[in-house]
Write a structure and sequence with these properties.
The chain has 163 residues and is mainly beta. Helix content is 4%, strand content 29%. The chain has 1 helix and 10 strands; from the N terminus they run βββαβββββββ.
Length: 163
């Protein structure tokens, strides 16, 4: 919380080249199944939360933007490709997964359901395994050293030894 009791959120891209800070209440959180969002996120849908009522500040770098339609810009990290924004005339929405604590932001509605992929609703019923369960077929997991930016602000990134 800020000194005036406004919630504060932070987040950024996978590589750490772009970081943001949001001060104030987040708006509606949703997932969008439209084909443009599927392609923009390279995924089944786009999880987004509105920040139009809050103050958004880019604290490291800034997204590169692609005009995906007459009215919408989509921001992403030019270094690692992480999808970050949906920018429309009515405001900006940020990718929920780009927040440092995405578990705090639960979607409340689905948009674009006419394009929902037919198997999406069945995904939660698929068997689930922890990452380490795949050690036999993916032995590189034992030596995995993540270069991903941590889920908190850092003064500099990447670490000196990786520059």
């Amino acid at each position: 919380m800020s000194l005036d009791n406004k919630p504060i959120y932070s987040g950024g891209c996978q590589c750490g080249a772009v970081r943001f800070r949001v001060e104030g209440a987040l708006g509606d959180a949703s997932v969008c199944h439209c084909r443009m969002c599927q392609k923009a996120f390279g995924s089944f849908y786009a999880p987004l939360v509105s920040v139009r009522e809050a103050e958004l500040e880019w604290t490291r770098g800034e997204p590169k933007r692609f005009r995906s339609s007459k009215h919408v810009l989509r921001g992403f990290c030019a270094e690692c490709g992480t999808p970050l924004t949906f920018e429309a005339p009515d405001g900006v929405a940020l990718a929920i997964g780009a927040f440092d604590q995405p578990e705090e932001i639960a979607p409340a509605i689905q948009w674009g359901v006419e394009a929902k992929l037919p198997y999406v609703d069945a995904v939660p019923s698929l068997p689930g395994e922890v990452t380490e369960a795949d050690m036999e077929s993916a032995p590189y997991l034992a030596e995995l050293d993540s270069y991903q930016h941590p889920d908190h602000d850092t003064e500099t990134w990447p670490p000196e030894e990786r520059r």
